[in-house]
Amino acid sequence: MVVELDLIALAQFAAAARFRLAVDLDLAFLNHHFGVAAGVGGTRPFEKLVQFDVRLVQRRVLPIEFVVKLMAKRTSIEGQMSLFPELEVPSEPQAAESSWPAWPGGMWVGTSSWSFPGWAGIVYDRKYSDSKLAQTGLRAYSQHPLLRAVGIDRSFYAPVTLEEYRQYAEQVPDDFRFLVKAPERLTTARFSRHPRYGALAGEPNPEFLSLPLALQEWIEPARQGLGRKLGCLLLQFPPTSAHVVGGPSGFAVALHRLLEQLPAGLPLAVEIRNRELFGQAYLQVLERLGVSHALLVHPSMPPIAQQFAALGAQPLTVIRWMLGMPDYEQAVSRYRPFDRLVDEDLGSRSAIIDIWRRALEQKAQIITVVNNKAEGCSPKSIERLAEQFWDPEVPF
Hints:
α7 (162-170) packs parallel to α9. The chain is an alpha/beta fold. It has helices at 7-16, 20-34, 55-58, 64-73, 130-136, 138-141, 162-170, 184-187, 211-226, 247-259, 280-289, 304-309, 328-335, 346-361, 372-375, 378-390; strands spanning 2-6, 49-53, 107-111, 149-152, 177-181, 230-236, 268-271, 292-297, 316-321, 365-370. β6, α10 (247-259) and β7 form a beta-alpha-beta unit. It has 16 helices and ten strands. Mean pLDDT is 82; it is low at 1-87. The chain has two domains: 2-87, no CATH class; 107-390, Protein of unknown function UPF0759 (TIM Barrel, Alpha-Beta Barrel). The N and C termini lie far apart (59 Å). The strands form two sheets. An eight-stranded parallel barrel has the order 3-4-5-6-7-8-9-10, surrounded by four helices. Strands 1-2 form a two-stranded antiparallel sheet.
């Protein structure tokens, strides 16, 4: 039996594979036995097809696993059928089959991000790498009937360009919405001593609540790139010592100064992670300027039912179900690879559904984002929410 081997595909596969050394060794083997010029590192394009006897595989000269992976990933040749069609990996992640009723109009639910390999069989049809999902997984994510929104967390750490926002918008349906975080340089009064801040660690931030920064790196690129698919612009303030931001009154004054200068009509929400800042001065600023408070499930804040009770009417109800336990790193370690529910939070689930119902009665728009660190797997958390939202008889 003779099998035709496309060396162009082999070279491309070798260049992208993490186990480059093993692939290079096999290229060297082909070069030795068939006289085909193999590029250094397996990256030189080839212009020939060679044939090798499958008996070489049977004698373990070439590992069968390598041949299977190669044939599954190879570039197809026009008019030639794949040797292993059942193993072919799509060029772009595909959605898992799922059947759920649509959310009510004006209500969008989703997760903090979309690039988790552990969601194979839940959101995606199979397991893909996190990098593959980050680059090309959003389209498949947006095909899940329950996932009508997603958070863009990366904007917190580095600017996202107008073109990148446009590319995001092009991958999702018209009724999909994005929640976009403000840069941490905008919302951090003093940098923590984390090593990632380098020389800025522990130093005051001169760009705290800077209007030019807010407009140039956050609002305008997101607004122009996402268009009507922009669901929420979120100012997330990290936990800090209250005195660093001037205490509750000083923080409220500084927040008011920024918010009143922003363009009118933006879908703005503010998230704080200090319960001592959640008081009348803060709430009055938001109410006066028509900005929403993001209801946050997080150990640093009061229960969301208590937060919701303190609010007046809000045109946009924003819920972020983030973290159930005090230690973030412990949650990551406990829940990874985020493929199942581990610690179900029935109280928060019940409160979220109650807030949904009340907000819908008030004809408010709703955006809810769920994190893997809430219960272990955010798409599964959303499935539980959907079950109990649509059928109140389902037990919590």
